[in-house]
Amino acid sequence: MSKIIAIDYGLKRIGIAISDESRILAFGLTTVSNSEINSYLNQLLKKEKVDTFVIGKPLQKNHSPSQIEDAILFFIKKINKLFPHVIIERYDERFTSIIAKKTILDSGVNKKKRRNKDLVDKISATIILQSYLENK
């Protein structure tokens, strides 16, 4: 079975997570700068059998789209052209950054590492993917 890639899109950094082949567990891979995401995904898809991208959908508390939604839609059009064989699904990512920060804090990571925004983005992507897998 193919794996699933989760993408926590940001204007500067993008968190990436991947599922196992049985689509039960999510694993944080990395955080990539926005300018390098196309190249990174291209290399990743050469190594891994992936048929789905799950891209976070940031919503406000009142369910209206977040300010970054237009940039995400532009990104989706771009990767849809680059990887037309990969299905793109959206998944509600509300509160994932807060949950990621709490997870890092609860894990006992030192203060310097807790400030690492790359770690937060990678964990946020993992949370998005794990939640997506559990709801499928």
Your description of this structure?
The protein has one domain (3-135): YqgF/RNase H-like domain (Nucleotidyltransferase, domain 5), CATH 3.30.420.140. Helix content is 43%, strand content 26%. The chain contains 5 helices and 5 strands, in the order E-E-E-H-E-H-E-H-H-H. A 5-stranded mixed sheet has the order 3-2-1-4-5, with helices on both faces. Helix 2 (69-82) links the parallel strand 4 (50-57) and strand 5. Helix 3 packs across helix 5. The longest helix has 19 residues, at 117-135. 29% of the residues are buried. The mean pLDDT is 86.
Topology:
Elements: E1 3-8, E2 13-19, E3 26-33, H1 37-47, E4 50-57, H2 69-82, E5 87-92, H3 96-106, H4 111-114, H5 117-135
Parallel strand pairs: 1-4, 4-5
Antiparallel strand pairs: 1-2, 2-3
Helix pairs in contact: 3-5
The amount of helix comes to: 40-55%
Strand order of the largest sheet: 3-2-1-4-5
Total of helices: 5
Fourth-tier CATH superfamily name: YqgF/RNase H-like domain
Instruction: Name the beta content range.
Output: 25-35%
